Amino acid sequence: MNPKNLFSTKRLQIDKANASMIAILAVSVFLVVFSIVAGKALLNQRSYQAKIIGKKEKARDQLKKNIEETKTLVTSYKSFTDRPENVLGGNPAGRGDKDGDNAKIILDALPSKYDFPALAVSMDKLLGQVGVKGSFSGTDDVLAQDAKASNENPQVIDLPITLSADGSLNSVKELIGVFERSIRPFNIGTINFSGNDGKMNVAITAKTYYQPQKVLTIGTEVIK
Fold first, then answer.
1. In angstroms, rounded to a whole number, what is the distance separating the alpha carbons of residues 37 and 14?
2. Taking CA 123 as the corner, what is the angle to CA 193 and CA 177, rounded to the nearest 5 degrees?
3. d(CA 18, CA 192)
4. Quick one: CATH architecture of 113-210?
C-alpha cells in the first residue's frame, strides 16, 4: 500500500475517533446539565409542596380550634340571653322600657351603626319620660362618620349632642336621673340651669357613642 494512502486512512480514523469523542462528551455534558436543572426543579417543587402542606395543616388546625371555640361561644351566648330576668331587671320577652333580652339591651346601649334619626327618637323618648319640653340638636353627617368606621379594627366613636329642655325644678332633676339610668351611655360635658323653681331651663352638652361591627373576611394567600 502506498504510504501516502496509509497516512490518509489513519488520519481519517483519528478524525472519526475525535468526532465520536466530541459527540460523547457533548451528550455527557448535556446529561449532566439536564440532571442539575431537573434536580433543582424537583427540589424547588418539593419545597413549594412542603410550604403548601404546611399552610394547609395550619389552616386545618385553626379551623378545628375555631369550631371548638364556637361551641363554647354559643353556649355562653344562650346562657346570657336565656335568663329569666335581664340585666336591667326586666322581662326578656316583654316590651317595656326595661324589657328585652340581654343581647338586645347591649345592642341598644352601643349600636353598631351610625343612625342619627334613631338617636333623635331616643332623645325625645327620654324627654317624654319626665314630661319636659325640649329640643335636641346634633350633626347628621353620615359621610364623615362612615369615614371613621373601620371594619377591620372597629373603635368606639363618639357623637356630640346638645339638649335644651324646659320644665319644673323637679322635672329637670328627674331628667338628669334619666340620663344616668339610660341604657345608652351618655358622657355629659356641661349642664347650665336658668330660671326659677316654677320654670327652669337646662342646657346640656354631651356625647353618646356607637361602635361599628367587625366584619369577618376570608382572604387568600399566594404561596411562593
1. 34
2. 55
3. 111
4. 2-Layer Sandwich (3.30)
Which residue in the block uniquely carries the three cell numbers 459527540?
23
d(CA 93, CA 83): 10
pLDDT digits (tens, 9 = 90+) for 26-68: 777 777 777 777 777 777 777 878 888 888 888 888 889 988 8
pTM above 0.85, yes or no: no
**CA neighbor of 108 nearest in space, from 116, 178, 221, 100:** 100
Q: Give the CA distances from residue 155 to residues 152, 201, 209, in Å, rounded to whole numbers and listed in that order.
A: 10, 35, 10
Quick one: cell of 197? Answer: 323653681
Write down the domain spans for the chain: 1-79, 83-111, 113-210
Give the distance from CA 163 to its chain's centroid: 34
At 126, list the grid cell.
327620654
Neighbours of 149 (CB within 10 A): 16
In terms of Cα–Cα distance, which of 122, 209, 198 is closest to 163? 122
Q: Evaluate whether 195 touches 187 at the Cβ level (below 8 Å).
A: no
